[in-house]
Fold this protein.
Amino acid sequence: MLSRVVKEHQAKQVFHREQQEVKRRAAMQSASAVSQSLVDMVNSGVEEAYSNEKKLEGEAKRLHANSEMFVRQTRQWLSLVDGFNQALKEIGDVENWARSIERDMRCIAGALEYAYKGKGGASTGGGQPPTS
C-alpha cells in the first residue's frame, strides 16, 4: 500500500512536471510572439520614418534646384531689364541731342535768314540771293 501511494505520488509529480514544462513552453512561445510583434511594430515605425526622411530629402533637393533655377532666371530678367533701361536712356539721349541740334540749326537758320534779308534788301533790293 505504501509503495503504491509512493508510486502514485511520483506519477503525479511526473505528470505535474510535464504539465509545467508544456505551460512553460507555451509561455515562452507567447512571450516570443509578443516580442516579435513589438519588434515588428517598432520596425514598421522606423521604416516609415526612414521612408519619410528619404522623401523629404528628395523634396529638399528638388526645392534647392528649383530655387537655383529661379535665381538664375531672375538674374537674367534683371540683366534684360537693365539693358532695356540703358537702351531707353540712350534713346532719350539721342532724342535730346537731336532736339538740341534742331534748336541750334533753327537758330543758325534764323540768323542766316536775318543776315541774308538785311544784306540782300540793302544791296540787291529784291531779297534774292546773290548769284555766284
Summary: The chain has one helix and no strands. The helical segments are 2-123. The chain has a mean pLDDT of 88. The CA atoms of residues 13 and 19 lie 10 Å apart.
